[in-house]
Amino acid sequence: MTGETNNARPQIVRLFGRRDSAEAWEIRDFLKRSVVEFEWVELTNDDDSQSVLGLATLTNVRLPVIEMPGGERLFGPSLREVAGRLGFVAKPKLRQYDVSIYGAGPAGLSAAVYAASEGLSTVLVERSAVGGQAGTTSMIENYMGFPQGINGADLAERARQQAVKFGVELLMMQEGVKSEFRENRIWTDLADGGTMVARANVCATGVEWRRLNLPNEDRLLGRGLYYGAGASEAPLCGGEDVFVVGGGNSAGQAVMHLAAHARSVTMLVRDTALAASMSRYLSERILSERNVRVRYDVEITGLEGDRSLARIEVTSRSTKASEWAPTPRLFVAIGGVPNTEWAADTSIIRDPGGYLITGPDLLQEGHTPGCWPLERMPYYLETSVPGSFAAGDVRHRSIKRVATAAGEGAMAIAFVHRYLEETA
Ligand SMILES: Cc1cc2nc3c(=O)[nH]c(=O)nc-3n(C[C@H](O)[C@H](O)[C@H](O)COP(=O)(O)OP(=O)(O)OC[C@H]3O[C@@H](n4cnc5c(N)ncnc54)[C@H](O)[C@@H]3O)c2cc1C
Description:
Elements: E1 3-5, E2 13-17, H1 22-33, E3 38-42, H2 46-53, E4 65-67, E5 72-75, H3 79-85, E6 97-102, H4 106-117, E7 122-126, H5 152-165, E8 169-172, E9 176-182, E10 185-190, E11 195-203, E12 207-209, H6 217-220, E13 225-227, E14 241-245, H7 249-259, E15 264-268, H8 280-288, E16 292-295, E17 298-304, E18 311-316, E19 322-326, E20 330-332, E21 336-338, E22 388-390, H9 402-422
Parallel strand pairs: 2-3, 6-7, 6-11, 7-8, 11-22, 13-20, 14-15, 14-20, 15-16
Antiparallel strand pairs: 1-5, 2-4, 4-5, 9-10, 10-11, 12-21, 17-18, 18-19
């Protein structure tokens, strides 16, 4: 990557790249989720290069190019480099914290706000953008206090500001990969090679999108194939016929968001009806939206495209009849799997799906599990390791809502206080 200064001095970030670039999509998605105002400029040929970038030709230019407020240009940057230039990447300041929180979705952000505002030295570690799944949502309509709804990234950004105001150290683009519990401390190896030490921790690492597991999936990711609600891509779908896979709330929100931009949105649902868990206001809107079509009892069985997605194979689950449908974009929202690989070598007990088991759910016939070392019972959100708590979607039998995740984050900190008093 090279940096260069442009005298034009744009006020906002500008991102230049080719339409089907997965690298450009990754940066667009990150900027959108991080509520960074930016302009996307599509480049197609040398004329664009000359007129937009001031470079004679696109040949040998490492795309995408990002231009920072102030004019500095980064050529072909990694996400970490972009985040670093925006001031989002920092090193831990302390050798040890009262509480370390992993994951800055609603649960982790809420835990951070309460921990820091109640005087605990707090570090919040997030491997990507702040906001988690909620940050990818164009409109959250059922979160108390926002009668008109609120954009998920905006809600997360408010929480981030609140947490930072109370003194939370936020380490973005940083990931906990392995943890060890000893001497009443949690020692976590970070992806960059560092180690984080804390007296207690809250795991709020949520879930990540379940994959289709189809050939060509990795190659087409970011090139017409996207996981989630497509918040950053929707405005680029003008005049297109796009598809969404999934029958739950996340898929429903993606459909409504995309329908405002695309020519048509086809929702592909495995079952014979929308998920019973889908909010009623959402299903009513989907079924009455002019440019939305819902197809039931179908699944995706193939993805094809050369440089980018060109067509998908849709197969009836009952008749097995299949057809290829042309489309430049497919959004996949078929549920998630918990981010708990870090717990694999610890005595933290997970359920068969990988979710962290906490509190009363740990008891077997009224008894604590063999690995539990204390006389007292685990607190409600405590895992099978004392002082290690779980909050939000990552927890066994969680409710999977923004409000419950935020509530559990706050509740986890109340238990952290009790635990720290015990071990003082
Ligand atoms: C498209 C969509 C629409 C939705 N709409 C609504 C809605 O309208 N109303 C509603 O109530 N709920 C909605 N939900 C559900 C809601 O967003 C989730 O229940 C909520 O975000 C869960 O919060 P969380 O903090 O537990 O986890 P997440 O939001 O999943 O956040 C987890 C965070 O942890 C990070 N992470 C993972 N592993 C690591 C690691 N090892 N180290 C560091 N960080 C890590 C992830 O990057 C992520 O940022 C929606 C979900 C989606 C996907």
